[in-house]
Design goal:
Elements: H1 2-21, E1 42-47, E2 50-52, E3 64-71, E4 74-83, E5 89-98, E6 107-110, E7 119-127, E8 133-136, E9 143-151, E10 156-166, E11 172-183
Antiparallel strand pairs: 1-2, 1-11, 3-4, 4-5, 5-7, 6-9, 7-8, 9-10, 10-11
Length: 186
């Protein structure tokens, strides 16, 4: 009788414990920050399906940066996020505009890199040794930047984005499910 009770107890324990012992499959999306609009200084996206969030380990002054500058009668936006947790590369994701004003609710096409009147996206792998592997949006590989909040009084910019970018070898990087919520400097 005592053996039957122990066997039953053991079977029940295995039944209740085994689901919690299974390795849980964590979605890359769950590793990204929420898409907020409060100036939380958050940034995240998927790079070829893997989660990317900013991280500063050593030499960077900041892992995120946002600037909206009025210069010579024109507006320039720069959003940059970097991660140096990989021992081989600093990874940087940048979005920007050249001579293009920002309006809340607008959707900008991310196209040619650093061209007057256009918005762009860029991904760079900057190795400790070797050449930079840079991917940029083009007229062929493009994307979108949707401005969800632009508060010039509180200097907050929030957006969602996605883009495809090409490197000099013709390889494509897919940046999806992007979002940021940042305070910007002028």
């Amino acid at each position: 009788m005592k053996n039957n009770f122990l066997i039953t107890l053991l079977i029940c324990a295995v039944f209740f414990i085994s689901p919690s012992c299974k390795k849980k499959n964590v979605s890359p999306l769950s590793k990204l920050p929420a898409a907020t609009q409060t100036g939380a200084n958050t940034f995240g996206c998927l790079i070829n399906g893997a989660a990317f969030t900013p991280h500063r380990r050593f030499f960077l002054n900041s892992d995120v940066q946002a600037n909206y500058i009025y210069y010579n009668g024109e507006y320039y936006l720069t959003i940059a996020a970097s991660n140096d947790s990989d021992d081989k590369n600093l990874i940087s994701v940048d979005l920007g505009t050249t001579k293009l004003p920002i309006i809340e609710g607008q959707t900008l096409n991310l196209a040619r890199y650093n061209i007057t009147g256009e918005a762009f996206g860029r991904l760079a792998y900057i190795p400790t040794l070797g050449n930079i592997n840079e991917y940029t949006t083009t007229s062929v590989s493009s994307g979108q930047l949707h401005i969800t909040k632009f508060d010039q009084n509180r200097q907050i910019i929030s957006a969602t984005f996605s883009f495809d970018a090409l490197n000099s070898s013709g390889e494509t990087a897919h940046i999806t499910d992007g979002r940021f919520d940042m305070k910007y400097t002028q």
